[in-house]
Specification:
Order of helices and strands: EHEHEEEHHHHEHEHHEHEEH
Distance between the termini: 39 Å
Largest sheet: 6 strands, mixed
Strand order of the largest sheet: 6-4-5-7-8-9
Strand content: 15-25%
Bound molecules: adenosine monophosphate, zinc ion, fe (iii) ion
Number of helices: 11
Amino acid sequence: MFADLHLHTCFSDGTYSPEELAAQALRHGFHAVALTDHDTVEGCAETAAACAARQLEFISGTELTAEQEGREIHILGYCVDIHHPKLLAEIGKFQAVRQNRIREMVARLNQMNVPLETDAVFALANCRSPGRPHVARALVQAGLCGNLDEAFERFLKRNRPAWVPKFKISAAAAIELIHEAGGVAVMAHPGLNRSDEVIPAMVEAGLDGIECFHTKHSTPTEEHYLEIADLLHLLVTGGSDCHGNSKGKPVIGTVKLPYQHVEKLKARAAEIKSASAPHH
Ligand code: AMP
Ligand code: ZN
Ligand code: FE
Ligand code: FE
């Protein structure tokens, strides 16, 4: 039995609808999946229903944009209460800033005489948590760029003219928020920016796990983070980080997390929920 605990839908910058995501997960033989859209939990209810219709286990989640010592860190929150008022309030802030960031990116493009319209980006994104991939797709759709890579290379990559820094909360705040919402906090894809030196401080802040298995982790990288997880007594998670067709071929199915890790994750979530439940 296997799981994919890192998936995106069109509720952030993926292309799959919840139905398509569940169908793909079934096709690849998964027993359980988690949805981890950027700075939102909005797709969770629909994806849970789509999974239930296929006897697939669903774990609600999110991928929060955070920072630690000046580095961008993504914190995955699993088994969070998707109706938790504070979580929803914080997510609302993220989304407002993301939408303003789209306006700012388009304004910068317009200053360079790239006639992209803000509404074209919002219409294409059709979600409350838009990001650079939506701007890139809109540029391609409007015929202003040949492909997504060109859009990133010319305009959207860090330090390119239309790049606007992203709003982030501190890693400690993200971990605390996830715990308050009854969830388990996991550092996403540590091998992507090799930020090992920030791990101890995050563990100090209550980090529960690290994502050892990820599409972009090589086997030695996997082994490296499995060792760190073992050493620091952290949970082990993994997932494909599939965005549907938005970054070339869908990668769902390329990472298969053994189900035993899901059991440990759920056990931790139960502990966190019972610790925060009102005592009598
Ligand atoms: P944002 O959250 O708005 O900063 O956008 C980040 C997203 O853009 C991530 O999902 C990245 O994988 C994606 N991204 C970054 N660089 C590129 C690129 N060169 N081509 C396609 N997608 C990219
Ligand atoms: Zn993404
Ligand atoms: Fe990420
Ligand atoms: Fe992701």
